[in-house]
């Protein structure tokens, strides 16, 4: 579904049919996270992560941190791999173990290195 800022995110849900006024972010939140509000979609990294990494084993959680003196919010995506049960440092590239299991990915990486030389 399209977020209020115009990006596609399958965790966002809205319903304005017949007088309803429902807007939700259905991504699991980290415990102690600040409450979600629709304007936060503009700063959310999750749609870009989902566009860059389509792994079926990618599990995302969102941590919304209040800013200094309560002004602004910082959005942090916490990623993990459900197949290997490890945290993922860079969710844009995905799980290093899953990437090592893909034979075509190493060929692609080698081709990119050859182009750089």
Structure description:
The chain is α+β, with helices and mostly antiparallel strands and about 120 residues long. The protein has one domain (about 25-115). Helix content is about 20%, strand content about 25%. It contains three helices and five strands; from the N terminus they run ββαβββαα. Strand 1 (about 10-15) and strand 2 form a beta hairpin. The termini are far apart.
Average pLDDT level: 88
What is the number of beta strands?
A: 5
* Structural domain count: 1
Shape: elongated
Biggest pleated sheet:
3 strands, antiparallel
Describe the structure in brief.
This protein has helices at 46-52, 96-100, 103-116; strands at 12-15, 22-25, 58-66, 73-81, 86-88. It is of the alpha+beta class and 117 residues long.
Topology:
Blueprint: E1 12-15, E2 22-25, H1 46-52, E3 58-66, E4 73-81, E5 86-88, H2 96-100, H3 103-116
Antiparallel strand pairs: 1-2, 3-4, 4-5
């Amino acid at each position: 579904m399209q977020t209020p800022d115009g990006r596609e995110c399958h965790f966002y849900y809205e319903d304005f049919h017949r007088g309803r006024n429902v807007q939700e972010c259905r991504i699991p939140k980290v415990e102690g996270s600040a409450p979600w509000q629709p304007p936060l979609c503009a700063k959310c990294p999750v749609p870009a992560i989902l566009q860059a990494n389509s792994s079926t084993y990618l599990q995302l959680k969102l941590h919304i941190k209040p800013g200094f003196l309560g002004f602004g919010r910082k959005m942090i995506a916490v990623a993990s791999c459900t197949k290997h049960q490890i945290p993922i440092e860079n969710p844009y590239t995905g799980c290093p173990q899953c990437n090592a299991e893909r034979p075509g990915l190493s060929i692609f990486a080698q081709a990119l290195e050859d182009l750089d030389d």
